[in-house]
Amino acid sequence: MRSFAAACCCIALALAAAPAPAQQGACKHRGDLDTPFCDEDGDLLADTPKDAKRQKNPDPLFFTNSPLEDPAVFKELMRPFVEHLARCTGRKVRFYDVYSSAAAIEAMRSGRMHLGTMSSGDTAFAVNVAGAIPFGIRGDAGGPQGYQLWMIVRKDSPYRKLSDLKGRRVAHTTPSSNSGNLAPRTLFLAEGLVPDKDYKVVFSGKHENSVSGVAGADFDAAPIAHDILLRMADRGLVKLDDFRIIWKSRNFPPGGLSMAHDLAPALQKKIRECTYNYTYSPEMVRGFQGADRWLPIDYKQDWEPIRRVARESGQAFTRTAFEREKTRAEAAVKR
């Protein structure tokens, strides 16, 4: 959490100092996008700058993974794809390491990150705050892969339903996480459980910390993305049999690949082509529970469940909301 709060402070400075583009005042429609961006075609995404001088054509391309779990492990899992991108685009692709979701969003906004992976909730924040363009989602021949929110407890605990957690310590991940925070605040209401009121929320920083914290009895329970728990079990970090799953959600779209909105159109097209023609390595297929390819994203349609959950939880993926969540994270650190 200290890294998240520190990164948020950096974001606040970057947001305050970021120069507005010359044609900002001519923007006819912006929606929830922050002021440096414009959405005149109504797809909820930042438009590529019309002025060719503002379009970027970088070499190397900087790629990052928003740290849902151990950054080094996830980076190694993605390496075959990153190496394919370098060969296919004819450009060097360098990893840009970040250690919080806030830092990844700031890196995209400031131009230090050109493309990379983000979680579902972070993707929506990155779209509005950083001008990110989601373009690839994990899947297979049957379509996009989904993930579920699981509420986990230790198998030897007395907790068997959500209402048993009243008065307990429950680990949420980060304020911007869909499965780790936003969805629980919406979906648990129907089950008679109100986070922050019925149980104490403790932000862990990432899903791996939540899982490990439940395993080590630091937390009584944790809402987590189920695919991350499966990857941890596959690596031998935890045993699935040590946990009890007391609640499961419907499927959500998994986090996907995003790129900066101001990349030159020809480069954007090439990145998409290289992404969609890639077949996952055996390591990636195993690590992503059978997904073997990247499929195109229609952000307006595919991310509607994420935006709906946020709305129902009183959240909005705006700069104002991001600043509010930053304040919450800083307060959690002080506690």
List the defining traits of the structure above:
2 domains, D-Maltodextrin-Binding Protein, domain 2, alpha/beta, seven-stranded mixed β-sheet, 335 residues, 12 strands, globular, three-stranded antiparallel β-sheet
Structure, described:
This protein has helices at 2-17, 71-89, 101-110, 120-130, 178-187, 207-215, 226-234, 265-276, 282-287, 299-302, 304-312, 319-334, and strands at 61-65, 93-95, 115-118, 132-140, 143-144, 149-154, 169-172, 200-203, 222-225, 243-248, 256-260, 293-295. Helix 5 (178-187) crosses helix 11 (304-312). With 335 residues, the chain is α/β, with parallel strands linked by helices. The protein is globular, with a radius of gyration of 19 Å. The chain contains 12 helices and 12 strands.
A few lines on this structure:
39% of the residues lie in helices and 16% in strands. The protein is of the alpha/beta class. It folds into 2 domains: 2-144 and 254-334, Periplasmic binding protein-like II (D-Maltodextrin-Binding Protein, domain 2); 149-248, Periplasmic binding protein-like II (D-Maltodextrin-Binding Protein, domain 2, 3-Layer(aba) Sandwich), CATH 3.40.190.
